[in-house]
Amino acid sequence: MEVFKSNKGGDKMPFEGYTYTVKYDGVNHITWRCSKRNSTNCPAILKTSILKTNHSVIIGHNHFANKSEVNAMIAVSKIKLAAKTSCANPVEIYAQGVSELDERSKSMMPLEETTTRTLRNQRSKDNPLDPVSLNDLMIENDWCTTGKPFHKLLADNGIGATERIIIFSTDEGLNNLACASTWYMDGNFALAPKQFQQLYVIRVQVNNVSTTAVYCLLQRKSMSTYESMLNTILKKV
Hints:
This protein is α+β, with helices and mostly antiparallel strands. Helix 2 (67-85) runs antiparallel to helix 3 (90-99), helix 2 (67-85) packs parallel to helix 5 (112-124) and helix 3 packs across helix 5. It starts with a strand and ends with a helix. It contains 7 helices and 12 strands. The protein has helices at residues 37-40, 67-85, 90-99, 103-107, 112-124, 171-179, 223-236; strands at 4-5, 11-15, 18-25, 29-34, 45-49, 56-59, 145-146, 151-156, 165-169, 184-188, 198-206, 209-218. GO terms for molecular function: zinc ion binding.
């Protein structure tokens, strides 16, 4: 059976519509107890080999099995793991996890809004501390890509710049810019992260569909900032 992680990070064993947590990890076998022992006072005991195979129920349960509930638990565990190991949007991760379930198991899932909020909070714990100033902001290693598709760090005029400009794009985005006869540009102030005044985007039409080709984080909204941003992008296109 497929062992998955509990909310506390421990192993959880699904078996015949029930779930168990480790009671004793022995030399030759593992003893598991019902995960609902506290809420139902269930005495159930399961034993497996060290490899978590060869299941044997030693003491039965005092409540009914619920395979749909177990399926939902496994799905939630997979969703949380996917959020840790991929850059996909939490909404996409949730949708993918739910799509693999039957209708009854889907009804046992926590609300999408609750789960996606949990995923975002989970990811935020792995984030570095917010910089006190832009002189503390260095973008390197895994932080040079973001989102799906993977937007790469196209340019960063670096620590010490009086007007910090950070630009992300994809190879496809740059190609779309090069092929487009019109660029649609706008800045969003509400979505700008701390230390920046605006999130600036450049969009183009591809097959009559508008798509964002470039994302820019701008410290200022001056003419010199816009000129520097556009000159940098034009050199990359």
